[in-house]
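Sequence decides. Our protein:
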Amino acid sequence: MPTDLRQVLRRWGAPSTNSPIARRIRIVIVLLVVFGVFWWLLQMASSDRLHPIDQSEALFHAVYGTPMPSRDFKCYESSRFQYQLTAFAIFRDADKYLKEWIEFHRLVGFDHFLMYNNNSTDNFREVLVPYMRAGLVTLIDFPTILTHDISGYLIQNTQKVGIIDGVQRFRCLTRYMGIFDIDEFFFPTSPKQSLLTLMNTFVGSGKCGGVAAWRLNFGSNNHTTTPPGLVLEEYTRRSNEVITGKKVLFNPRQMAGLHNTHSLYFYDGKPLCDEKFRELEYTTFSDHEAKAIREVDVLRINHYYTKSYQDWDERLKRGTISGNNNDFGWKLFLEADNNEYLDTTVARYLPQLRQAMSAQNAVHS
């Protein structure tokens, strides 16, 4: 029995190790190994990298009991999405404002509304059912979420957990999402601008994970009781200042986590941008946001924060979804109730808004 390996290989019909065929085989093997190493390095380089500051934030979320969104899903940017623009909101006892809020944002360009009800006791369901039947609203009943903080104290995490839940539900259903409160009305500043086109420019291009819109705080217009008209026509006076506390429109497949409704961060190092493509810090603290250039030339949010004295009193009684009830009171109302500047920019939507609401009332009467 031959002991020489070459003799064995020749007996089996294998080519000589010095033959041209053997040399080609060795070259192919080397190329495959090199390609495999290169592919592995490429995968490591393009894996789910968080924004540079996110490593400590991951610990924050773990401590506070808020799950980080997983990227284990099967949808891509080239997918055909059921919705283009979805507005997300968590609300409590807001039945008298829901219809106006939905109809306005339909005019702006949103084609679906993901609504999370937090312990409401009013007639919100009667308002939303027609929209649900039309496929415009998805309603989720979402109770108050309590978790322990680092010191062991119970805190409310309803908003944060609700947002992550909503993103996980809808990231493969909608191309873009926006997170708002029911007292916030978002729209492009110029009537010539399309919201979907703007989102494709900011986020669809891959330049940013999301785009932030700054808020303008509207006061009570000296209404003591809830006025009969629409919010947008009854409250027309605001502060001169563009306030801190931005809101974000974003790609839900890129969201890696959040601090709260004002600050999100994204996978692959994609920044949160403002309307001029400037990168914003991941923070909600006023001293940092105060340094940001807050402009509303492209995007803006009319924030009807106080409304009337009666509305504020009702707000105090029902409490806040965020759980920051100690931060609210009549002192805050007096600080926030600024009526120094007349602003009717949103009035261009009023004729269509009245018509849309009248049509809804006629259909459901």
Notes: The first strand starts at residue 83 and ends at 91. The longest helix spans residues 20-45.
